[in-house]
Design brief:
Number of helices of chain C: 5
Largest sheet of chain B: 4 strands, parallel
Structural class of chain B: mainly alpha
Strand content of chain B: under 5%
Shape of chain C: elongated
Distance between the termini of chain B: 38 Å
Number of strands of chain B: 8
Helix content of chain B: 40-55%
Strand content of chain C: under 5%
Largest interface: A-B, 103 and 130 residues
Chains: A mainly alpha (about 325), B mainly alpha (about 525), C mainly alpha (about 130)
Structural class of chain C: mainly alpha
Number of strands of chain C: 2
Number of domains of chain B: 2
Oligomer: heterotrimer
Strand order of the largest sheet of chain B: 3-2-4-5
Order of helices and strands of chain C: HHHEEHH
Shape of chain B: globular
Number of helices of chain B: 22
Helix content of chain C: 40-55%
């Protein structure tokens, strides 16, 4: 019974919610207009020939589409803005590095990427050679027997570090909502159960792969058969993972998709060179020159009489 | 003389729990809340629900269906502004922005953290626009009550829209955008502050924030020309409303008579006379700044549309803009979107050097720093930087043109050519990381003086650093609001540093044809030479 | 919907990524695939289900016992399923599983695992180079 519910029904539902939810969110955001071009410029604009722009300026204050694309890529793959983090000290005026958040964040996200890539061996048949290669590389194959995957262990550390920030730093504690803790705890539960399963309480992973491939083939009877043969430990990991998938589109985790839509990052700083059109631009409502002229006729006529110019009164 | 003993400024940091943070603050501290609008301004601008009200009262006399209006308008703005919708959804509360806000640094009020400021409206968004919001408090959602409106008013007007947080946010969440939309929403239920509305109403009526009539502008320009005559012995003709000029010049209206803006305006006139520029001032479009951008899209459009209308009427080829901060956010990012550039304008080409300003090809509006830098690079100006020897200069990058335009090197290029002593403030307080003066975004008003002085603290401390280290005695800034705010701020923080603009330094250094020997600088103070 | 030029490709890329395993397997014609294993006759040291998940732990235990406690009877393994005693050695395995390629490798390849054991240890499928 556990197998049918957590091995067949819930994964299908969770995956459906995930895909539909993410696409819904993309469309939900795309349905809103972008009235203004509002890039945050973090570097020198493109202007005159002799005003030099460094490589950083080009990507922090992009002028062309390609520069903007590079800015987005740096933002997504290197967390460029977080890397600028500095901390303010009242008593010290020199800059102090406070890039711990960047370090923890990049540690977590890249470990997650590696973990996900390694997990594709349960989804892909035959297993692509690069997945095997990545697994062997990050385990320093042969150092430990059985292999210990570095990313799988580091991700726990990174998640704890990110969580400790929220617990021990007063500022971060004060802005953390229950959902922030929840997301971290959910991820922690998933990675810890995964590691326990890998090193201590073993399950039949060939059956796991059989289950996943049967689910993909919509071969329900076969999937049920596999599902029933897998140990309960697997379902802790699998059910939590399914829950994460379903939770993803409707939570702050959707920042992964949202970054692509961020108007302060995905627009080039060429505002004065290329006009941006607001789809709902209202018509001008205000006084015209004619109304203005009638209101201040005498004064304006005086300026006209003096030949549209003023001269200093020289004594 | 009475001896004035300074009161100690204490920054009390509080770290309430998230539950407490969700509770609305309704105790308004003196020096932090804004006065309500004047009836006359609100009526003139046709705002909804014009009435007498007071933020300190319990009853704000909101319209009976205020909640419905607020939520309908919120839905509308979610559809109109993707930024708003997105920023409501994707914040992960990582805290990268928290200590980046100068108001948070200065006041220690947890709700002044950019993330917490946005969370004030985000909690309402969650409650009414997301499924999880039905769970209530545990999901970080809260009901929209009158207290929440009061809190939104209190904190939306404690943000100077400087965008510093946006530089550090990994998703580029721009609190200025969120605050702007909160102010728009509040406007829809008749909750607007006084200061900006006075200026917006004046500007809508007379063409400039100060409410100067055409005669007043002509008179002010004439007085400036007289000052120049006294200084240099040169009679300068100042064209106003001249049809068929090549360039329309637009400056923030403070340049007409405030100090130290006045010296900047002298600088403009001297430069334009020296290079023989065919330009004109306008009384209809006599304001470069745009306080409308502090309140709403429509009000911003109401003010900046005039520049294009006037450019079309006068038949100029392109537009040159003076030294101002939010003006350049408006001109760079808003102007050409809110109004279609008139077909009569031509591509901006400098008549002196022939440089084509490619980066202003569509908006047809060039910044004075770009224009002057180009002149200097082509060696069209005779400059004597030794006339500025009195000043040991540092540059304050105003938030708006640094973070919304990227004008960083041009002013530095000009300043390094017109004065000999230039030092930068600490690296994390300049360029795109520049700290705000604390008075932008509609906060340049007396009643929030405490907030302004505290908000300007990080900038003042950075300035103190270079003042002590290099003896800096001149804070150069290309922003009219800065020029008005800094004198108070520097007095408060006991820094004997003068405030001025780039064009004042240019005016000092500029050697004009047929000028008499200068004995004083533009301020009328004796020239000092250091050898 | 605005910016269809960018949003639709984004959605397509997302869908392609989300369904990439399905597409990959469909193209490799391996949907629902499970390796067929030639099962040897007789019983293993423990039940087949237990062995499927835990054989690596068992081999690890055997290794440790053989190296550390070989002299004091560490090489004798008591099966908890059948209560019988076995000689704790891979040679015991090879008595029934006479071909590594049709038994071990099938599953190992299926889940992308390459145990380091057989880099050194003997197995019956090993091709001994002829001198």
């Amino acid at each position: 019974m556990i197998g049918i519910i957590f091995g067949v029904i819930i994964p299908y539902i969770a995956f459906a919610i995930f895909v539909v939810g993410v696409v819904y969110k993309f469309i939900y955001w795309a349905k809103s207009a972008v009235p203004l071009k509002i890039p945050t410029t973090s570097g020198q604009q493109k202007s005159l020939k002799f005003i030099k722009r460094t490589i950083y300026d080009r990507f922090d204050s992009p002028y062309t589409k390609w520069e903007t694309a590079v800015r987005m890529i740096l933002e997504i793959f290197a967390f460029r803005s977080l890397l600028k983090n500095t901390r303010y000290y009242l008593d010290r005026l020199s800059q102090r590095d406070a890039r711990w958040l960047w370090l923890f964040a990049i540690l977590f996200h890249y470990c997650l990427l590696l973990v996900l890539i390694r997990h594709t061996k349960f989804f892909l048949e035959p297993v692509p050679s690069f997945v095997e290669m990545i697994s062997e590389l990050e385990a320093f194959k042969g150092v430990f027997i059985p292999s210990v995957y570095v990313s799988g262990v580091t991700i726990i550390a990174a998640l704890f570090l990110l969580w400790f920030r929220r617990i021990f730093l007063s500022r971060e504690r004060c802005i953390s909502l229950p959902s922030d803790h929840f997301a971290l705890l959910l991820l922690l539960a998933i990675v810890i159960s995964g590691n326990v399963m890998r090193y201590f309480i073993k399950v039949d992973i060939s059956a796991v792969k059989g289950l996943l491939l049967s689910l993909m083939a919509f071969n329900i009877p076969q999937a049920v058969e596999f599902a029933n043969s897998i140990e309960p430990m697997f379902y802790i990991h699998f059910a939590l993972g399914s829950f994460l998938l379903a939770y993803f589109p409707f939570s702050k985790l959707m920042h992964a998709g949202g970054i692509f839509f961020s108007p302060t990052r995905n627009m080039p700083n060429n505002n004065r060179a290329e006009r941006h059109v607001n789809p709902w631009n209202p018509p001008y409502k205000g006084i015209t020159w004619q109304e203005y002229y009638e209101a201040y006729k005498d004064q304006l006529d005086e300026i006209a009489e003096s030949g549209y110019k003023v001269k200093p009164e020289v004594l | 003389m009475e001896k004035h003993v300074a009161e100690k400024v204490r920054i009390e940091q509080r770290f309430p729990s998230w539950r407490e943070l969700l509770k609305p603050t309704t105790e308004f501290k003196h020096g932090y809340y804004h006065y309500p609008f004047r009836i006359s301004d609100a009526k003139y601008l046709e705002l909804p629900f014009v009435r007498e009200w007071n933020p300190l009262d319990k009853d704000w006399k909101l319209p009976p269906n205020w909640k419905e209006i607020f939520l309908t308008k919120m839905k509308e703005y979610l559809e109109k502004f993707r930024s708003f919708k997105l920023f409501m959804d994707i914040c992960v509360r990582c805290g990268a922005c928290a200590d980046k806000c100068h108001y948070y640094i200065g006041t220690g009020d947890p709700k002044n953290m950019p993330v917490a400021r946005a969370e004030l409206i985000r909690s309402v968004y969650r409650r009414y626009f997301t499924p999880a919001g039905k769970l209530g408090k545990i999901a970080g959602a809260r009901d929209l009550t009158e207290d929440v409106i009061k809190e939104l008013y209190y904190y939306a007007y404690q943000c100077s829209l400087c965008r510093r947080c946006s530089v550090f946010c990994p998703y580029g969440i721009d609190t200025a955008e969120v605050t702007w939309i909160v102010r728009m929403l509040l406007k829809e239920i008749g909750v607007v502050h006084r200061f900006s509305l006075i200026s917006i109403a004046s500007s809508a009526r007379t063409g400039n924030h100060l409410g100067l009539l055409p005669g007043g502008i002509a008179g002010a320009l004439q007085s400036i020309a007289e000052d120049i005559y006294n200084l240099t012995g040169i009679e300068i003709e100042v064209p106003i409303n001249k049809k068929g000029a090549e360039i329309l010049f637009v400056a923030p209206s403070a340049d007409y008579f405030a100090t130290p803006h006045w010296y900047v305006c002298m600088g403009y006139l001297m430069l334009f006379h020296e290079i023989g520029l065919d330009y004109t001032w306008s009384t209809y479009a006599s304001e470069g700044g745009n306080f409308g951008t502090f309140i709403s899209y429509e009000l911003a459009q109401k003010l900046n549309a005039k520049i294009y209308q006037e450019a079309e009427r006068l038949g100029v080829k392109w537009i040159l803009g003076g030294e101002c901060g939010h003006m350049w956010r408006d001109k760079h990012q808003y102007l050409a979107t809110m109004n279609e550039p008139p077909k009569t304008l031509e591509d901006p080409v400098s008549p002196i050097t022939g440089t084509y300003f490619e980066n202003a090809a569509s908006t047809k509006m060039v910044h004075i720093a770009e224009f002057v830098a180009d002149l200097i690079a082509h060696k069209k100006l005779k400059l004597d930087p030794r006339r500025n020897d009195k000043w040991i200069v540092t540059l304050h990058d105003a938030c708006n043109y640094a973070r919304a335009m990227g004008l960083l090197e041009e002013p530095r290029y000009v300043i390094k050519n017109v004065c000999r002593f230039f030092y930068e403030m600490p690296e994390h307080t300049i360029r795109e990381k520049s700290y705000c003066c604390g008075s932008g975004g509609g906060l340049l008003t007396e009643e929030v003086m405490d907030l302004r002085m505290r908000g300007g603290m990080p900038r003042a401390m950075a300035l103190r650093e270079v003042h002590r280290k290099y003896g800096v005695n001149y804070l150069c800034t290309l922003c009219a609001i800065d020029k008005a705010a800094f004198p108070h701020l520097l007095e408060y923080w006991r820094l004997p540093v003068a405030v001025g603009g780039m064009m004042e330094l240019v005016g000092n250094a500029l050697i004009m044809k047929g000028e008499k020997e200068r004995t004083t600088d533009l301020r009328g103070e004796p020239l000092i030479r250091r050898d | 919907m605005y910016h269809k030029k960018y949003v639709i490709p984004l959605i397509v890329v997302f869908l392609a990524l989300a369904f990439s395993p399905l597409i990959y397997n469909a193209m490799a014609k391996s949907l629902g695939h499970y390796p067929e294993i030639t099962k040897p006759k007789g019983e293993c040291v423990e039940s087949a289900e237990w062995m499927r998940a835990n054989h690596m732990l068992l081999l690890q235990e055997w290794r440790i016992n053989a190296i550390r406690h070989g002299a004091e009877g560490g090489r004798i393994y008591h099966s908890f399923t059948y209560g019988k005693e076995f000689h704790a050695s891979t040679n015991t395995c090879w008595e029934c599983h006479q071909d590594k390629t049709v038994f071990c490798d099938k599953c190992h390849n299926y889940v992308g695992i390459k145990p380091e054991c057989w880099d050194c240890h003997w197995n019956p499928s090993l091709e001994i180079p002829v001198r």
